[in-house]
Amino acid sequence: MSNGGQCPPYDCLVIAPLEAVVAVPLLFSGGRGVHCGRYQPLPISRRDLLSQAALGFGGVALASLWGDEAYGRVIRSDDAPPLTPVASHFPARAKSVIFLYMDGGVSQVDSFDPKPLLEKEHGQKIKLPVQPTQFDSVGAVLKSPWKFQRYGESGLPISDLFPHIGSHADDLAVIRSMTSDFSEHTNANYFFHSGIGIQGRPSMGAWFTYGLGSESQNLPGFVVLNSGMIPPGGVDCFTSGFLPASYQGSLFRGEGEPISDLKTPAGEERVRDRKLRLLARLDEQVLSRYGQGGAVESAIANYELAFRMQTAVPDLVDVSTESQATQALYGIDDPATAVYGRQCLIARRLVERGVRFVQLLCQNLGHDRWDQHGNLLKGHGDNARAVDKPIAGLLADLKSRGLLEETLIVWSGEFGRTPMAQGSDGRDHNPFGFSLWMAGGGVKGGTTYGATDEYGYYAVENKLTVHDLHATMLHLAGMDHTKLTYRFGGRDFRLTDVYGEVIEPILA
Question: Model pTM?
Fold first, then answer.
């Protein structure tokens, strides 16, 4: 390695830790040992070791094992090329995931968990022990402003907030006993996305693309469609954490150009091509000098993907090529539903193109997302109108194209809301029992699982955690959550940490 002229002119090889570095001249240098202390050992990956040691015979054996699904391709190796499709642990029901994130916390007792007792005891003091709430503003019992109807052959009860989604009741598996460990938005967002309530851990989208790779060659494996509002916690909700950067969520804007610098300025195509050729030569030099490490390959893969996206993304987001009937199905012809409808349609186009994990964010409607501490009727009403028809259109479109059975849809917020009033017309945060639903991808439709108490406050039957949800999502994608691991900081990590059980009763 060159020493940059700061030490005697010898080519040195580090053979000791930084605390006692000894720079030893290579045989061809013709020099003698020099103690310089300015060198740090470069990390070497397992694949580099196999390819460089013993004349590379270990690398030949590794290549052979990768071709055999009984070995390395069953569980992703941290040395495998980024985003390369990898065989799942067992046959998958879902090839892709669309995560409809209802940021802020939808009220379960106003959506998918009807509680007649709230109407009976409206205005009275709740007859249950009450936990400290986020704002410690505990009012009287508050009945739901919306009526519930039974939909489909299953008779699934869904409130008047979601009449369009209700028409797909027989495709939904509603979970009414989900819980969270956090009652504050930022920590709850991290917890729901990554399985831990602190910043920096890989999100579920990153784990899915790490575990399975992506079937799309021209688009990222994990795409986040920003309809207007980034959740509290910021883009770290979609981070790759300690996983290689190739698994990071790519944020697409909802309006204007979806990605910055997507188009090459007119007349600069030749300059762009020269820069790309130079970059390729530099990449080759780095690989030849330092070996094929995961970080280097991730950076190269990201540069190459960015170039291919210049062609793929404009075609992806041009929904004008869809029929008028399809656009109307998603509500793109209505200003009230156009923004989220367009994102739902793009989500369908993404999974058609092989993208592994797609997440949709909420639209900015002038409210604090679904976080209605007051003005529940208007806040929840406006948010529901914006997403109800587009989501129903997505379910119908996927089903008509034969894609729903291989696409897992997950609809949820980070927690629920209290059955008591905050002020006169709001609800506080409630992590003790809330609802979500799943559809497609091997889920048993027309079912409910779990239950809250008669007020809808605490999960009391088949209580679940986010780890159980993550384990089930991975299972439907063909992965054993206990085997999808990544070694970092001296231990093996996984999305579900040391928890999580697959929710067997909701599987088809």
Answer: 0.81
